[in-house]
Write the structure tokens for this entry.
Amino acid sequence: MVARDEFLEYAQVFGKYSYGTPKKWLQESRRRGLDLVLEIDVQGAQQVKRKLPESVAIFILPPSREELERRLRSRGQDANEEMARRLAKAHDEIVASEKFYDFCVVNDDVDRAGKEAQAIVLALRCSSARRRDRVKQVLASFGG
């Protein structure tokens, strides 16, 4: 799919996992008039922003390094070396987040963080740029 340019974004993460978002998902969501929400890393956000500057990126920030480490360790999936690599990458991604993200939500309370993310999406749906066609329709009802 990479060779055929079928990904909106793709990356190899930690040298062993490959991830990507097929372009057809974007095309399908546009066709159906839906928002497309991607759960991607900073590499992916950078690629999407380059290809779709109008896209909106929300960075989900852990409340602290200690809490991120606690969450990762509670999964029980990574050895200490892998854990150190993940935490170093998280640091680098937080530093880079200012370059590629439009909003930041701190995930210290999952309910509040979810509501903040929903509020961002709702506000974007109501933006004058997204409602331009609707404004024209209303204006037309006034006779021009």
